Amino acid sequence: MTPKLKKKRTCREIVLAGLKYILLVAGAIVMVAPVLWMLSTSLTPDSVIISYQLIPSKITFENYVRAWDFPRVFSDSVTLGTFFFNSVLVSALITGPALIIDSLAGYVLARRDIPGKNLLFYLALATMMIPFYVIAVPLFLVVRKLRWLDTFQGMIVPFLSSGFGVFMFKQFFQSVPKELEDAALVDGCSPWRIYWSIMLPLAKPVVGTMTIFKAMWSWNQFFWPLLIINNIKLKTLPLALTMFRGLNVTEWGTLCAGMTIATIPIVVVYLLMQDSFQKGIVMGAVKG
Question: DSSP label at 54?
């Protein structure tokens, strides 16, 4: 290869790399701009006129105080903290048990010889292809029959397992060498001990990934709670934020303050689980 051709190729690579970085920066700006606008508006004196400033000219925290007490307009016994607690409770009681149930199902389907396990796995995958809106009405009828309307269990129990979670854990457990499990059996470990003490700790990247997905999904649930919850004391944050929208006007500072409060927990969960999440994504890309 001549030096001239090598130099020409190097220049082309530099130009292509520069274009990639420009596109990445532009994409990052597009993604971050709405968040910056939300933060800026929440720190700007409240107004019914939409502000498009990304940097507030005058900073105030009054909107957060107003947002916290705003639900008292509808009921003296509730604040934004009531809805915040409801969302935390629902998300925790969906995410935690769902990880155990999905991982147990994935472990059994990957490591145990049970009749019809392939059929069960395909049925689990089939649930990923059915939009929730298709099963919303039948599920509502079941919940009403169980008298779970206006209850926490009505928001939690139907989502304690997912086909996506079963799929992720099954694919991971299949990649673990069988010799590791055989050695544990020789040492006298029971199947439960193997799952809990060996397989589940090895699945930490998948646990981190699924924790973020499940926590984010359960935290942002809107349609299902809207169907089954009428009691204001049981509403979650996504439902509560709709109360900030006025019939004729909307106080944007108060609304954005409430949105910011609702965003913080998911950001915290991601920051705590980001290492496992990144490992899980990379692992899935390599093995997929």
Answer: S
